[in-house]
Design goal:
Helices cover 34% and strands 21% of the residues. By secondary structure, the chain is α/β, with parallel strands linked by helices. The strands form four sheets. Strands 5-6-7-8-9-10-11 form a seven-stranded parallel beta sheet. A four-stranded antiparallel beta sheet has the order 3-2-1-15, with helices on both faces. The chain has a two-stranded antiparallel sheet with strand order 4-13. The longest helix has 19 residues. The structure holds 2-succinylbenzoate and magnesium ion. Magnesium ion (MG) binds next to loops.
Amino acid sequence: MVIERIELRVLRLPLVRFFETSFGRVDDRTFMLVRLDGGGLTAWGECVADQEPYYGPETVETAWHITKDFLAPLVLGVPFAHPRELFPSLRRVRGHRMAKAAVEMAAWDLHARQEGRPLAAVLGGTRARVASGVSIGIQDSLEQLVERVGAELAEGYQRVKIKVKPGWDLEAAAAVRTRFDSVPLMVDANAAYGPGDAEHLAGFDAFGLMMIEQPLGEDDIRDHAVLQRRLSTPVCLDESIQSVRLGRDAIDAGACRIINIKPGRLGGYAESIRLHDLCASRGVPVWHGGMLESGIGRAHNLHLSSLANFSLPGDVAASRRYYEPDLIDPPIEVASDGTIPVPDGPGIGVHVIEERVERATIRRLELRR
Ligand code: OSB
Ligand code: MG
């Protein structure tokens, strides 16, 4: 496989509904798309870096800079026997895993298209449909939250995750649990608490949650281990797990019982598969996280979710929760049983509507060797 041309674009799309986490509210998303051309085929990747460095340190601007000035020269015109060689070939560039992932995942798409196979088959996926949950942001009132949960459950989604932060936490979980007594429920704090909040966080144990996601700081494995010993609710790590090695260390330390895998956070598919396999060998279930992706990133997520140890419902919901219209056609839809089919065409297997991409583009750059 040879990447002959790279096109970078920055797009801006309005969200169907605002999304609020412990680090703030967004009404639209600005993100980078990577288009690769090689061997007469076109492939796509989506970078999950936000406009602001609040979820993690990367931004759209750092991803643009790193991809243009450092990653593109390392991959353009270079023959790769397999896309799993790409991530190690970028080793000189420290960090910047979201930027690396966008290029690497597009390269897997290109490879799968060259083989005429769905990406899921190339990644080692084993299931044709993926279980979907929803991530529901912080709302303006508890009534609004309960109403949103009800609307999502009516669509068939298999579990509900609510975002929490100090001041919007135990009461929010209680409101949802009181109204929906048997719904598989979890909370995500996006690192909003500190080690001194253990007593308070133990209050979540009363609600029979599937897990509490990333309660403490991203670099705080030890205090997550202390917290996990204090809680009956399983801890799931998201922001903390930026590499396979950090995943291993967190499991060894007892800092979590579940891991959220986002290929953007890890640097792409090769690292995600390695982490998935490591977790399987340690009996740690994983699920696929989401980053408010357009249909391009969403399709990628579905393919990775088809691997066997993605045994819990993921944040891989339908297009219409996010963008209307989406950049792909047909949009991704959820069935009434809360599952989404893995696209079965070559590569990511969805049709990118280039005219919609063009209309949403605010910057574009073409790179060749
Ligand atoms: O922590 O999982 C997260 C969105 C943006 C940044 C971080 C997170 C999220 C979500 C939304 O929870 C998941 C989705 O629906 O795409
Ligand atoms: Mg999270």
